[in-house]
Records
---
Amino acid sequence: MSDASPILRINALTKTFDDFTALHGIDLDVAEGEFLAIVGPSGSGKTTLIRLLVGMDDPTDGAIWLRDQRIDVIPANRRPTCMVFQSLALFPHRTVGQNIEFPLKLRGVAAKARKDRALELLDLLRLPRDYYAKRIQQCSGGEKQRVALARALAFDPEILFFDEPLSALDYRLRKTLEKELKDLHRRTGKTFIYITHSLEEAMVMSDRIAIMRAGRFEQIAPAEEIYARPVSPFVAEFMGEVNFLPLRAGMVAGAALSSAAQAALAGQGGTLVLRPESLRLNPQAADLTLTGTVAAAYLLGSRMQYRIDSPAGELTVEVLREDAVAGGIGAPVTLGCDLAALHLIAEARDAAA
Ligand SMILES: Nc1ncnc2c1ncn2[C@@H]1O[C@H](COP(=O)(O)OP(=O)(O)O)[C@@H](O)[C@H]1O
Ligand SMILES: [Mg+2]
């Protein structure tokens, strides 16, 4: 994030439905031109937040600022800077051009200016200009998404909001559109706020990720930091495959620690987070060492993933194929990692359930 004042500021935002609190006084600053992903499991309050931001619902308490203007008190139709991207809301029987021009027509923009803008947006979204006259029904899934994006951009909003736009699409189309969205963000320089329950999607596209849990932000940071230094077992687990080792009084049951590791962890307790790719098989030397047996092996293209039964529980290890262990299921192995690969969370893992 830059030092400049934020384009969007959320201050102590609260939303309650009867006696249920969906958002617990959350704060957030979004920088101009940032791509922020908001990630969280179903029911964590993501859609509720977006609805407040675009004015589809009113907060119970707190404030939303767009630059110097407080916008939570302004009706949705007078917040021209905020658009929600909804692919399913296209008019299927109308043309691509009519769909893109729809918001401009609503606001009384003249026909010639509308068409010029629509053609410009077709260029921006890398759709051929002759799609202007094509019907939505004749477009592929990916083309429909691009048309919907063009329409969302038609009025030149300062912030684009997305609420899980790709979740219903098949894997390959999703992967393509993730990259296109990131590219579109770069080319337009606009601020994107993108909601998803897929952390993988968030990592591919965003500058920062805000992890939501039960109506609060649990961690807001760049993807690398969330991956390397999750603040809680909840965040660590959300980031994909991970191993947790309970640490009690500076010791890990079933593991041997080097003197450097003993010194670094002395007297501490909590949960050690260890990524599968940080564990090595049969290392010469390591700061933390465990022995175990291979319980399962999976080929992941250029890498192998192993499940290892160890005295510290079942662990997941990923190595390059050339570092794969000889011997199959049941083969004895030693696992090791460096001190730098161990990330300590003060919270015991059980508390996260
Ligand atoms: N209009 C509503 N009335 C009552 N509860 C609601 C309403 N909208 C959302 N909720 C509740 O608020 C919580 C968060 O919902 P939502 O923001 O849709 O989550 P997400 O988008 O992260 O899946 C859920 O428990 C949901 O049931
Ligand atoms: Mg939702």
---
Amino acid sequence: MHENRCIGIVGCGNMGFALAHRLSLYGFTVLMSSRCPDKHNDREFEIASTVECICRSPMIFVALHPEHYINSLISHLEHDPSLFEGKILIDLSNEPLDKSHLNDISNAERLQTAISNAFVVKAFNTISSFAMQSITAGESSNVFVASDHSIAKDKVIILAREMNFDAFNAGSIHVARHLETDTKSLFPQWRIPIIVTFVVLIIWLTYTLCMNYIRTRTTSWNQLFLHMVNEILCPSAITMLAIVFMPSNFACIFQLAYGTRDRRFSKWLDRWLLSRKQLGLLAFAIALGHCIIIIILVSPAYYSS
Ligand SMILES: NC(=O)c1ccc[n+]([C@@H]2O[C@H](COP(=O)([O-])OP(=O)(O)OC[C@H]3O[C@@H](n4cnc5c(N)ncnc54)[C@H](OP(=O)(O)O)[C@@H]3O)[C@@H](O)[C@H]2O)c1
């Protein structure tokens, strides 16, 4: 890294400037590029044309939206096919919101195909511009680096570490497909545990309605809500706890049946085992709700009302 600490950044947007601040904080010289360099009157960083930025920097961050790759980057190949020769292009992009016109190939793979003489590396796309700019941000500092060019990948890993990130080798450029979609999924590991919790609550709601309030109605109407919620939460918490502990027992049974610890569990058991933390936290939340309602129900103030 030390032979040339000039890093190029194509695109003067949120991520471009966040990167520039971070890089300059860790001692790098930053050369930014914009469609209109004169438009930005930022005196902190040098802003040049895209061609000049690419010529002067061995490593270039592409801080553009992927739909602008052709007009801002690839179009320069027409005038100078060797412009990107040996350059490391770090693709930061995530999957565009409107992907109706795109096939399954990732932005990084598309960029590598279009500029075949450059070394395209997918990295930093899981870091927000806020976390990029602030060294004290509580967000994850994991940078996953994927590329088909091992030397370029190693250089980007070293750069990420010098920028005080935890960098990991994520494999080939093919992995970019997962990295680009990962940031778009909201609470990816929580979806199934939340569905399971709703199913458990609905089952116990149906049971409670049938057993207590349709056949025999013993509770006064003004106390019906809390009583009913309590009767649902209590068995739901116990059921959830059973769901949390059950997969470990299944795992033991499978290991005994296989006669080895080294064979992988089937997919459904693997996912169930990996969801135990989320299921446990949801079980805790239900049990907490049950405890709070119990405290309200046994308080003299509730009955006197
Ligand atoms: N923001 C984040 O937190 C974040 C996090 C991870 C990854 N990313 C990725 O980083 C990339 C940039 O995101 P951003 O938030 O910095 O976007 P942005 O603020 O909208 O900036 C994008 C830059 O692209 C250039 N641009 C805009 N319209 C263009 C056009 N029609 N043709 C050519 N260039 C155009 C502009 O630079 P000039 O006007 O200077 O040319 C603009 O500043 C995206 O691919 C995004 O997925 C962003």
